[in-house]
Structure formats: structure tokens, C-alpha cells
Design brief:
Blueprint: E1 2-7, E2 12-31, E3 40-64, E4 67-84, E5 92-98, E6 106-111, E7 121-127, E8 129-130, E9 133-134, E10 144-153, E11 159-168
Antiparallel strand pairs: 1-2, 2-3, 3-4, 4-11, 5-6, 6-7, 7-10, 8-9
């Protein structure tokens, strides 16, 4: 749903839209039984709900004789959540990255509807803290906390852009 409005003989305008979309039957690569002779299988399943807002402001601040200046600013934000996964799948690892040399320091991209997970959530381990203080081992290295925790999301909170256009004598 959106609107586009112009004022002052089209010298000031706003274009705004909000949307919500649900995508169903995503194509997901799941592990297969080794007795099948295949390592993975493709299935259709799951749902992702996306919601967003887009706003664009346009203006013509200078319009004199042969000079014209057009300017615009736009803003957009989008949130996508995993609302359902295929039957018998509680969470789906969409990616994995091992940091440094050890698999103990890994980051996982996990989609899960159980905790209202967003598309792009990043999970990984942190450092073990007791009473707000980092725990160190006998060699003086920080001890890794084995529990996965949400480290954030790789999608931007919003996007912002702007542009200007100058024209002189229709050039």
C-alpha cells in the first residue's frame, strides 16, 4: 500500500509505501539418509514473512531561468522473519564460517521460527563470563563459552540515500 503526493506545482513530493509479504515453500537443502546414496535432498517447505517501509522525498529547490536543481532523499527498512520450517526441522543452518584455525570459534547463520528468528541472524560463541568478568585458563587465554548466542544480524537496520541533479539550459 502506498501513496504519491506532490505540492507547489510539483516542486515538493513524497512517495511512501508499506508492504507485507509471505513467501511459502522455500527450496531448502536438507541432509539425506546415507543409505539413499545421496548426501542431501531438496525439499519445498517453510515460510518467510517480510515487512517493510519505503519513503522518498523529492524537491526542486531552485527553478530559475535556465537553472534547475532537483534533489531527493530516500529511506527504506525491511524485516524478514522465518515463521515456519519444513516438518521435522527445528532450525536450519544457512551458513557456517570457522574463525581462525579452530572450529571452536565458529559463526553460524541459523534460521529458526522458535525464537522468532530473523533472516540473517548470526549465532556464535563468546567468552565465558562469571559475575561480569571474563574467565581465563592456566595459559592466560580467555575461556570460550560453549553456548551459542545471537551475535546480531547481517542485514542493515535501514538504508538511506540521496541524490542531486543540476541542469543548465537543458544540458
Amino acid at each position: 500500500m502506498g501513496t504519491e503526493l506532490y505540492f507547489f506545482k510539483d516542486r515538493l513530493g513524497i512517495d511512501a509505501s508499506v508492504y507485507q509479504n509471505t513467501s511459502a515453500d522455500q527450496i531448502i537443502n536438507l541432509p539425506a539418509s546415507s543409505s539413499s546414496g545421496y548426501a542431501t535432498r531438496l525439499v519445498n517447505g517453510g515460510k518467510i514473512q517480510s515487512r517493510g517501509l519505503e519513503v522518498s522525498l523529492k524537491a526542486v529547490p531552485v527553478l530559475q531561468n535556465n537553472l534547475r536543481w532537483n534533489t531527493n532523499v530516500n529511506f527504506s527498512t525491511n524485516r524478514s522473519r522465518v515463521t515456519q520450517l519444513p516438518t521435522c526441522v527445528e532450525q536450519y543452518v544457512t551458513g557456517f564460517e570457522s574463525l581462525y584455525i579452530s572450529t571452536d570459534n565458529s559463526v553460524f547463520f541459523i534460521a529458526t521460527p522458535a525464537n522468532k528468528g530473523r533472516v540473517g541472524d548470526i549465532y556464535g560463541t563468546g567468552l565465558l563470563n562469571v559475575n561480569g568478568k571474563t574467565v581465563y585458563d592456566a595459559k592466560g587465554f580467555p575461556v570460550r563459552d560453549p553456548k551459542l548466542r545471537n551475535l546480531g544480524n547481517y542485514n542493515p537496520d535501514f538504508m538511506l540515500g540521496f541524490g542531486n541533479e543540476l541542469s543548465y539550459k537543458n544540458l
